[in-house]
Amino acid sequence: MPDAYIIEVAGRTAGIVARDSRDDAFSFYAAARMFEEMEGQSFQDPVAAETAAREMARRGSLPRRAEPSRERS
Q1: How far apart are CA 6 and CA 28, in angstroms?
Q2: Which of 12, 48, 53, 65 ranks highest by number of CB atoms within 10 Å?
Q3: CB of 57 within 8 A of CB of 14?
Q4: Are the C-beta atoms of residues 17 and 43 closer than 8 Å to each other?
Q5: How many domains does the chain have?
Q6: Is there a domain that residue 72 lies in?
Q7: Which residues of 28-62 are buried (b: 16+ CB within 10 A; e: fewer)?
């Protein structure tokens, strides 16, 4: 499996993801200003990074991550 992938959104390069040498995650490196918010983020695989980039382009920002529920006992 290659260690780096180009991430494209709507025919434009959003950035690249490269395998992190410490684990099997992929780090994102922005190629366009619109995707700078993703710079340095870690993704499980290139597909996850592409999905996040597409969502960011659609919404104008990264989707919010679900907050863990804080139920009181």
Answers
A1: 10
A2: 53
A3: yes
A4: yes
A5: 1
A6: no
A7: bbbbeebbeebeebebeebebbbebbeebbeeeee
Range of the domain at 47: 4-59
- pTM reported for the whole predicted model: 0.75
Tens-of-pLDDT digits for all 73 residues of the chain? Answer: 569 999 999 889 999 999 988 778 999 999 999 899 999 999 999 999 999 999 999 887 655 554 444 444 4
Owner of token pair 């490269």: 18
* 70 belongs to a structural domain: no
Q: Is 38 a domain residue?
A: yes
Q: How many CB atoms lie within 10 A of CB 3?
A: 10
In a domain, 73, yes or no: no
Q: The tokens of 39 are what? A: 């710079």
